[in-house]
Structures are given as C-alpha cells and as structure tokens.
C-alpha cells in the first residue's frame, strides 16, 4: 500500500468514525453540582429558564435526560441537558434553580450528587 492510499484510507476511517460526546464513565457518576439562574442563551442556543428542569454538563449531548440524586438527602430530579459546564474543577453538573430546589440544595449552593442517563438524545 502506498503512502497516498494509506492516507486516503486513514482519512476515510476518521470521517466514518462516530462522534462520541461522553464516555461510559461520564454517562453516570458522582461529584459536586452547583446551580444557576441566569436568563442568557445556553450553549444549545435556547434561552436559560431558571424555572425549567435543565442542567449543564461538559460533554453529554443536548437533550439527554439525566436523573440527579442529592447524596445527602436522597431526593432526585430528572433534568434535560441544554448547556455546557460547569467550569469549576470537581463539579459535574450545573443545575437550574428549579432543579436545585427539587433536590434541596438551594441554600447550600452546591451538593454532592450522583447522576445517570434516563434517556439519550
């Protein structure tokens, strides 16, 4: 095989490879979550609505639904990923104010949570 044909074969392989947004380890996990209540546009292009059950994650596809459980009190909420973040080391999710309220973390501002995908987009 010549260098030119192997380069073409490699390029075809790269183009045909599926895009992966999150590894299996990131699709479920535990860590710290915070909340926010802005009304600016999210990374998905929609306007952030603090009253909706949404969240930001670094790599999960927009539209993915994730069950988030507060490790301290066991309360859970299902959120839809519509933004990117959080951008603070050790944090795995940024929840909307409504979602944070449902799992009892408004006062503290952040909480230890575990999350798992309920339905992928």
What this model shows, in words?
The protein has 121 residues and is α/β, with parallel strands linked by helices. It has a single domain, classed as RlpA-like domain (Barwin-like endoglucanases, Beta Barrel). 20% of the residues lie in helices and 35% in strands. The chain is built from three helices and six strands, in the order ααβββββαβ. The chain has a six-stranded mixed β-barrel with strand order 1-5-2-4-3-6. A hairpin with a 5-residue loop joins strand 3 (65-70) and strand 4 (76-83). The N and C termini lie far apart (40 Å). The relative contact order is 0.25. The model is unreliable at 3-25 (pLDDT under 50).
Question: What keyword list fits this structure?
Answer:
single chain; 121 residues; Barwin-like endoglucanases; 6 strands; 20% helix; disordered N terminus
The gist of it:
The protein is an alpha/beta fold. The protein has helices at residues 3-16, 24-27, 97-102, and strands at residues 28-36, 54-56, 65-70, 76-83, 91-96, 110-119. The chain contains 3 helices and 6 strands, in the order ααβββββαβ.
What is the topological layout?
Blueprint lengths: L2 H14 L7 H4 E9 L17 E3 L8 E6 L5 E8 L7 E6 H6 L7 E10 L2
Parallel strand pairs: 1-5, 2-4
Antiparallel strand pairs: 1-6, 2-5, 3-4, 3-6
Alpha carbon gyration radius: 18 Å
- Outline, from the CA principal axes? globular
Strand share of the residues?
25-35%
Contiguous runs where pLDDT drops below 50 for at least 5 residues:
3-25
Tally of DSSP helical segments: 3
Count of separate structural domains: 1
| Structural class based on helices, strands and sheet pairing | alpha/beta
Order of helices and strands: HHEEEEEHE
* Main β sheet profile: 6 strands, mixed, barrel
Kindly state the number of beta strands: 6
Per the CATH scheme, the topology name is Barwin-like endoglucanases
The CATH architecture can be given as: Beta Barrel
Specify the helix fraction band: 10-25%
User: Could you report the average pLDDT, rounded to the nearest whole number?
Assistant: 84
Q: Give the spatial strand order of the biggest sheet.
A: 1-5-2-4-3-6
Distance N to C terminus = 40 Å
Q: What would CATH call the class? A: Mainly Beta
Pfam family, one: DPBB_1
GO molecular function, one term: lytic endotransglycosylase activity
Family: Belongs to the RlpA family.
EC number: 4.2.2.-
């Amino acid at each position: 095989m010549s260098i030119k044909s192997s380069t073409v074969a490699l390029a075809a392989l790269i183009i045909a490879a599926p895009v992966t947004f999150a590894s299996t380890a990131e699709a479920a996990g535990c860590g710290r979550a915070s909340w926010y209540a802005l009304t600016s546009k999210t990374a998905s292009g929609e306007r952030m609505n603090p009253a909706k059950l949404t969240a930001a994650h670094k790599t999960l596809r927009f539209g993915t639904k994730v069950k988030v459980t507060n490790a301290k009190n066991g309360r859970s909420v299902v959120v839809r990923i519509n933004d990117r973040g959080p951008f603070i080391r050790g944090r795995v999710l940024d929840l909307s104010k409504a979602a944070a309220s449902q799992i009892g973390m408004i006062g503290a501002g952040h909480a230890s949570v575990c999350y798992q995908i309920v339905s992928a987009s």
